[in-house]
Automatic annotation (TrEMBL):
Protein name, per record: Small GTP-binding protein
Domain Hydrogen maturase F dimerization: 111-208
Stored Pfam families: HydF_dimer, HydF_tetramer
Extent of the signal sequence: none
Domain Hydrogen maturase F tetramerization positions: 214-290
InterPro entries: FeFe-hyd_GTPase_HydF (IPR023873), HydF_dimer (IPR041606), HydF_tetramer (IPR040644), P-loop_NTPase (IPR027417)
Upper classification of the organism: unclassified sequences, metagenomes, organismal metagenomes
UniProt xrefs under SUPFAM superfamilies: P-loop containing nucleoside triphosphate hydrolases
Amino acid sequence: MDDVGALGLARVERTKSVLQWVDIAIIVGNAQDFDHYEEDLIHEAIQLGTPTILALNKASLYPASSTFLDKIHTLGLPFVQTDAQDRLGVDDLRQAIITLAADHIPKDRLLVGDLVGAGDTVVLVTPIDTGAPKGRLILPQVQAIRELLDAHAKCFVVQQDKVSECLNELRNPPKLVMADSQVIMDVAAQTPENIPLTTFSIQMAYSKSDVIAMAEGTAALASLQDGDRVLICETCSHHPQKDDIGRVKIPRWLRQKTGKNLEIEVAVGKDFPIDLSPYKVLIQCGGCVV
């Protein structure tokens, strides 16, 4: 935080950018060396709305005066006095983290469990392609199965070439069909119109974010023009596959859908550009394997 020079300032800005995406920030300082660096970081975290705890470490070596503690109180965030060497206040810090998480981190909505009741039948369509993890399913597929079991619903899991066969074998129509986005057109062609149909991506958007804002963002794709920049943001730093969805399929679909010559870039992990204003649309993955 106290780096100098042009490169140092760039490092400082990159460090501060972390406050935009962390769930909880723990700012560590001590009563003797606490100065404007810590205060600026605290004020920035507060402005961003990032839940923050101040850990006043080395408390045995540098005891905090009453004047200093009064100053800390004016900052308006929880603080704990700790000493890593003597293990002083470690349990208090853990409890402060638990309390802050419970009070300030919103809980995700259910993926599909609130759409069904006990005894309902749901068909999940999960294609196995080169991008599928070996020997397991991705997170939203596992999450959907678990939520349906918790709801005491019946769950059928098939690939896209077995949808018609599965539906025909059921005595009664399922309450819902949920498919992977990349096979939705194939699945829609096999699913009667009287059976509700959704995708894992739509349900993840509903579960983890503002689905109305996501729909508005999707509608903005229709206004893209030649030369517009689109940023695809991926959570994990996996090795790209031959037909990678983020680097191959989505760019291909975007150009086919819009008919425009778009400039499409990919950001991986937390390495996002600090300035997002040049981009017309951001496409964020749902973190399906993290």
